């Protein structure tokens, strides 16, 4: 891996940027986002606003609003994850007629930006000189409180280095914001907020309240700004409060003395009408500030909250400090997006975190890559995120019915109420053309939900979840697959037509007007798996619940019989050489001239956009955006696949996996950050070297913004969590089957030792894996005894203890 030490240059838990570089700001802002699972704010400098360089966005999980836009005469509607008022603004100037300080208005002699992963803080250290020769140093530190989810803090230590005199400090709450981050969406309406009220509750507490114009979510922010001298006594300051629509600021007039620092403390509180245990949001925000302690105390609590999180979420990768540093960054951003603070928020996994506005914060299938990691660390969080789906089961039922199917058809992109939120047209930035978007035909999202429930249940044995929620979801998803499948008497098989596979590029046959492609192998095999698992789920449930569900859902024996039949007679397309075809007819497509395209456009290609801009279409080529067929090997072991193939009465050649990987490897453009992740996983056992190379690329997806400008629009949460999960489940060989936890490591050559903690069925255990041994330290818990098998040896743990297994 190319060195990352330029940025991680002191300790392994700090991301450090030296110098101010406006061009790099959008990426830094995304990577330096702070959050606590309740809200998050991009790492924009507090003295800046939305302009061509900076974008201080603030987001809350599930905080959506829908708006209509007129695109060239066509009215379209989109639901966005709203950018809420900016709570950061803090700046100063010397006199009324001078400009306000920002990194863009002074001559910086020192500028260092530090994201501290251990404590969840963002620090800027700047020294600068203005045009009158005054030199000033500001150390700024902020955090969004992991332990007190409504609170955030920002502190300045401002030291006049060669001058004494008066200054004006301005602290504000700014609701004059819109959704404006993603250039492709800028022609669409992004004005989601209506200002409701500004004011002050006490001399030092100001507030601002807004609502979303359609979804009517109310959000209030309050800010308490105080200034202290070096001896901690309040600095005498005259205050003037300025209010305009959607904006409130306090100007504090102070005197400074050379080399005597002033401490400016801004503590902010944010409450919404979506909270539980709440009253009105201005009342809650101002009241929590009256009670909030000073920043020092809040900071001590913040450090403690993160310390506890790291105890659960750490990874130690010996001899691979670079990998370890990036894994820390990935765990950090995952926990800032969803955490215990999100548990009552009715949110799913936003693919781009709470770090930007790409994909409008919609919930897609990315949870498939995130939940398995959480299942072994904080399973209660997976449970609450799965409830996001359960609450939208009726919407999915309605969608299926309206489309002429039965069961539950979950949307490809889901937002507030569970309807399909995929855009109907999108702008291709390369051609400047608005093109029709039918990616909602990715019906496979429902299978991902069923698979996630199975994984969660298998890992946790949470019978109550399966009993009351999970089983109903699985049965309704299975019912949908059965109704989507059509019997083809010629083939004597069932088929699924007119869909789009995970690849996303192939939306129709060449020159065809008909939408979608037929018999996407991944979709069909997932449908088989869901139907089979649904039947098994009915067996797992006790008789009263099985009868209850069959009665409620009106599931007849004949319908179950049909599920069984479809799950045995689904069509799977193969190519001449026996390799699974991505979809029926894939082998008839043209080969792409990969060398020419890669030479011209680089390693990770968005071929859909490139070819459309050349008046061609990616539909014409054997070219995938990301792993599609290979997803099957990502989700299922070879034994599980064999059993599915046997059920379908298709031959299963174990070498098929290797040949399929080789075939699709040379036809994949890696236009999604999920792609390398899957390639790394599927090659882990057969080609360790290639697996590790793909892993290293997946690892730097965001850190290096490898997709060329997508990270500034939001991090790629699934790739982040997926890289953690590869360590946790793939290289370590951690897997639960039939109530046994198997640990069969298979480390890549480059990886010498790996250790981490997992939580399995209410027990914590610490695993240390190297080439010669596996050590399990069982921390003792309060769950039932668990069975573990490693290297063919089976044992049961119930209490504190440890075991070392030497590999032969
Ligand atoms: C991928 C999808 C993914 C989405 C959000 C797209 O580029 O093709 O599979 O769900 O990004 O991460």
Keywords:
single chain, 808 residues, alpha+beta, nine-stranded antiparallel beta sheet, 20 helices, 31 strands, binds beta-D-glucopyranose
Structural class: alpha+beta
Q: Helix count, per DSSP?
A: 20
Largest sheet: number of strands, sense, barrel closure: 9 strands, antiparallel
Shape, please? globular
The side-by-side strand order for the widest beta sheet comes to 1-8-9-10-11-18-15-14-13
Q: Give the averaged pLDDT, no decimals.
A: 96
Fraction of residues in H or I helices: 25-40%
Query: What is the C-alpha radius of gyration, as a whole number of Å?
Result: 27 Å
Query: Quick one: how many beta strands?
Result: 31
DSSP strand content: 15-25%
What hetero molecules are in the model? beta-D-glucopyranose
Span between termini: 31 Å
Low-confidence regions: none
Note down, in words, how this protein is organized:
The structure is a single chain. The chain is an alpha+beta fold. Helices cover 30% and strands 25% of the residues. Strand 13 (193-202) and strand 14 form a beta hairpin. It is globular. The strands form eight sheets. A nine-stranded antiparallel β-sheet has the order 1-8-9-10-11-18-15-14-13, covered by helices on one side. A five-stranded antiparallel β-sheet has the order 19-26-27-28-31. It is built from 20 helices and 31 strands.
Topology:
Layout: E1 14-18, H1 25-31, E2 34-35, E3 40-41, E4 58-59, E5 64-71, E6 74-81, E7 90-93, E8 107-116, E9 121-129, E10 135-144, E11 151-160, E12 165-174, E13 193-202, E14 205-212, E15 218-228, E16 238-244, E17 247-256, E18 262-272, H2 281-291, H3 295-313, E19 315-318, H4 321-337, H5 367-375, H6 379-390, H7 393-402, E20 425-428, E21 433-436, H8 445-460, H9 463-484, E22 486-488, E23 493-495, H10 521-540, H11 543-552, H12 557-568, H13 594-601, H14 607-613, H15 631-635, H16 638-648, H17 655-665, H18 674-682, H19 688-699, H20 717-731, E24 734-737, E25 740-743, E26 753-760, E27 763-770, E28 773-778, E29 786-790, E30 793-797, E31 801-806
Parallel strand pairs: 25-29
Antiparallel strand pairs: 1-8, 2-3, 3-4, 5-6, 7-12, 8-9, 9-10, 10-11, 11-18, 12-17, 13-14, 14-15, 15-18, 16-17, 19-26, 20-21, 22-23, 24-25, 26-27, 27-28, 28-31, 29-30
Bound molecules: beta-D-glucopyranose.
